Amino acid sequence: MKILSVASEAFPLVKTGGLADVVGALPDALAPHGVATTTLLPGYPALGPHVKGARTVHRWPDLLGVEARLLKAGIGDHPLLVLDAPQLFAREGPIYTDRGGKDWPDNWRRFAALGRAAADLASGTVPGHGFDLLHAHDWQAAMAPAYLRFAPGPGPVARTVVTVHNLAFQGSFDASVFRELALPDAAFALDGVEFYGGVGFLKAGLEAADAITTVSPTYAEEIRSPEFGMGLEGLIQARGARVHGIVNGIDPLVWNPEADPALPSPYSVRSIRRRTPNKRAVEKMFGLDQDDGPLFTVVSRLTWQKGMDVLGWCLDDLVALGGRLALLGAGDAGLEAAFRDAAARHPGRIGVRIGYDEGLSHLLQGGADAILIPSRFEPCGLTQLYGLRYGCVPVVARTGGLADTVIDANEAALAAGVATGIVHDGVSYEGLVRALRRTVTLYADPDRWCRLQKNGMATDVGWTRSGARYADLYRKVLAQ
Ligand code: ADP
Description:
The chain is built from 21 helices and 18 strands. By secondary structure, it is α/β, with parallel strands linked by helices. The strands form three sheets. A nine-stranded mixed beta sheet has the order 3-4-5-2-1-6-7-11-12, with helices on both faces. Adenosine-5'-diphosphate binds next to helix 1, strand 13, strand 14 and helix 15.
C-alpha cells in the first residue's frame, strides 16, 4: 500500500509541536503493516541540508501563481518529497509567522499550493508517482482532498484520510481568496470550501475526506460538542462513523531514557534511582534548591489552551506545598512575563527558561519528578507520554488524549496497582491546587510513588497499536 503523507512539519526536519513528532514517526510505525509512506513537506530553509543534491522530479511553471518544483530526498529510511517554491517557503524564522509572530498574509496561498501539489501527486499528474491513499495532516494539508474532489489530475485518484491534530487551528480565510485557488465555482459551497461565508481549509478537507481521524478517542467524542468543535461540530456529527480516534504514539528510539544523549545519567525501569543525577542537573540549570519535595516540570507552549494562566495562579501554592518548578516554554508574552515574575518572587523554588530547546526538554523529562499538563483541551498530548516513558509522573487534566493515556492514582487504581499519574477534573484554581496537593502527598510515600513511576514506564506508549489501527483504517478506506 502506497501512502502520501502530507504535512507542514515533520521531526527531525522542522517542528513547532506534536504534529511534527507524529508525521515524523508514522513511516516507521506503518512499515511493519505493509504500508510504504512517502512524506511531502514544504521547502523551508531548514530543509536545505536534506535536499542538497536532491533530484528534481517535477516542475510547475504556475502552481497557484508561483513557480515550483518537486525534489526527491529521504527522511530516515523513507522517501521524502519537498515542494520547493522559494516565493512561498524560502523565509527564515518561524514557519507560519513573521518574526513578530504575525501570520504570513499569504498563508492561504502557501498551503493551498501544498494541497494542490499533493493532489497532483495523488491523481497522476506527476509521472512515476502514484499513491493509493493521501493522508493529510491538519489545515495546512487539508486542501489536498478538496482539490482531488473538485479538480483532480488525469490519473487514478487516491483515497483520502484527514487527521485533525488540533481543531483550534482551522485555516480560515476571507472569501476573496477563493478565486485564487483555481477551483471550479461549484467548490464554493456548503459541501465544499465555503465556511461561514469565507474559505475554510480544514473544513474543506473534512468535508472531502473518505475518513477523518483525530488523535485520541476522547477528543473524537469531544469535538462533536460546540465547546470543543469550534464551529465544526455540526460537520463532525454529520460525518458520524467516518470519524475515528487513534491515539498518538511516541518514537521509542528518540525518547529512550536508557540511551538518551541529553541525560547525564541514563536509566531504565530497573534503575530508576539513576534519575537522581539528572535531577541535580535540572536543579543546577534552573537555579533551584535541593530538597526532599517534588520537582515539577512544564514543557509546553505557554497558551490559554494549555491552561498556563491557571497554573500561573497556583504557583504560590505549589511553593507553599514544598514543591519546586522548572519550566521550559514559550508563547503568549503575558504568560511568559508572569512565569518570569514568579521565578523572581520564588528564587530557588521556581526556575524558568523561555524558549524552545529540544535537548532540555529531554533532560526535564529525565530529571523532574512530575510533569504538569493542565490543558483546557488536548487532542492527544505527547508530553504526558514522554513523562510516562521517563518515569516523570504526569499530572494532567481529564480531557482528550490526556484522559485516554493516564490512569489516575485513585484508591481503586492504586490498590489494583495500575495507576500511572494524577488526573484532575476541569481546569480551575481549586482543581489544580487539589491535584498538586495529591501529588505532594503521593510523593511523600516513596513506595507508592515508585510504583507510579514503574507503571508509567511499563506502559506501551509506542506506535505498535496505533500503527496497526492506521493501517487497518487505510485498508477499510481502500476497500470502500
Ligand atoms: P502541542 O502540539 O499542542 O504543542 P503536544 O504535547 O502534542 O502539544 O506536543 C508538544 C511537543 O513540543 C512535544 O514534543 C514537546 O516536548 C515539545 N515542546 C513544547 N514546548 C517546547 C519547548 N519550549 N522546548 C522544547 N520542546 C517543546
